Amino acid sequence: MDEQKVWDLRAKTFPRYSPGQNNYEAKILELAHGIGVDFSDKTILDVGCGAGMYTLRLAKMGQFVTALDISKEMIAINEKDAQREKITNIEYLNIDWLNFEPKRSYDIVFCAMTPAVKSVEGKFKLLTFPKAQVVYVGYSKPMNNRVLNAFSEEFGLELKPSGLSEQLKMFLEVKCVKFKTAQLSGRWDLTHSRDDFIVNLTSMVLFHGGSLKNLKLDSFIDKFADITGYYKEIIDYESEIVVWDNI
Fold first, then answer.
1. In this model, does residue 212 exceed pLDDT 90?
2. How far is CA 35 from the centre of its chain?
3. Which of 6, 33, 147, 175 is the most buried (most CB within 10 A)?
4. Residue 108: its pLDDT value, please?
5. Other residues' Cβ atoms within 10 Å of the Cβ of residue 173
6. 3-class DSSP state for residue 27?
């Protein structure tokens, strides 16, 4: 399955915009503010915007947001939530990051947990926006996902960590780019219906390069069911924000 189809599948259970000032994304943006990022009245490029968990917040703070993603399903959810919130200052682009050609300048380039900047070319492109501040959110170490860990052990899937901030920091050091960082750790305790649990597992396994073909999953999946018939997914994370100013 190609990358776009994997992300279209992940869109069905992917985190989307949630209001409030005490959730994960609110804390991430607060940390960014603490190391010198001011989103107020800024033009912002949201790279790999996903279903909009950050996009809508950025739009409420900033002057204008360009949100791009390779997944049509992610964009559709993002746009639907923006319409519900009556947010009109977002431009949506269904396009790959390496093929994106900006038609305007941006004060801030924002990218959170996106494989769009995993390659050297993807990282280098972040440096090509003159006078822009770049805000990257990644994991300081691979997340500890109980479901994926158990799947890997039972079916022999070798996980491929992505979105690691260490890779970006090494790249910036080679390019002699000075940066600031901030960290946030915690736990996501998620509850899914059976259908959503299966979709989420399938998309995550595909994303990590595995396959569910010819696997008997019923007994594995039922290990995570609670007495109410819902399915638990527990994830420990250690996130890191990396911020720098392009010259």
1. no
2. 20
3. 147
4. 98
5. 11
6. helix
